[in-house]
Amino acid sequence: xxxxxxxxxxxxxxxxxxxxxxxxxxxxxxxxxxxxxxxxxxxxxxxxxxxxxxxxxxxxxxxxxxxxxxxxxxxxxxxxxxxxxxxxxxxxxxxxxxxxxxxxxxxxxxxxxxxxxxxxxxxxxxxxxxxxxxxxxxxxxxxxxxxxxxxxxxxxxxxxxxxxxxxxxxxxxxxxxxxxxxxxxxxxxxxxxxxxxxxxxxxxxxxxxxxxxxxxxxxxxxxxxxxxxxxxxxxxxxxxxxxxxxxxxxxxxxxxxxxxxxxxxxxxxxxxxxxxxxxxxxxxxxxxxxxxxxxxxxxxxxxxxxxxxx
Length: 310
Prior knowledge:
By secondary structure, the chain is α/β, with parallel strands linked by helices.
């Protein structure tokens, strides 16, 4: 079995409020945008930062906060690295001073990336290929978003979240479930326009995918784990936007006290939303330790990945 031993996150240094960007774009309606996104403030990397810088700082704190610093694996989850090669995990292995007797690779995955990385880390540890794995989720979507993009700019933030996964005798991560619909990949993608990479999102299509597949995947995961909704203490889903989370909660008929939402001052940090939520809950003493928590990531791909952690 495996467990989350340490977790920490950092946000981009530059804070942007919805009011400020609406002032930049006078044709934007603040009330309408806030009612859809549920986001008042976002954080993006400033000109002096890179996602790897943020990743290094978050990982360093995550490691220093835990007594056992013998990391022998790094999984780096990102769709927006500063450079496509060398592997960002390798760069961070050296920068963090992690042993050369370690595995290190990148995962090009977005909103479901944290759950994917938990699955890989759990499998690697279970098969004695590593003892303790550092997962870093970091995305820099803001570099793909223009100042007047009303669909994407009010939603996405830049962040890095570091998580240490290790063997455990008492706690468990799993089972897992995965769903993929690559035919919908065109609805959330980076396109090259006038020699510049720009993020395109068909919001209604991504919402339809989420409402069609996430509830059924959640039910399937519960059956796979031989659990009911009543056995779950917390449903912690990818923090996509206010409207998406509200509709999923209603469709799954989940009580308020079992449903997590914390997006207003964070924004959608892509692969980092779930570990940020876990870190926040652990930090304020509200994470349901030794109880069942359902994680569900979904979005770009289009993909869904879920698991139960105890």
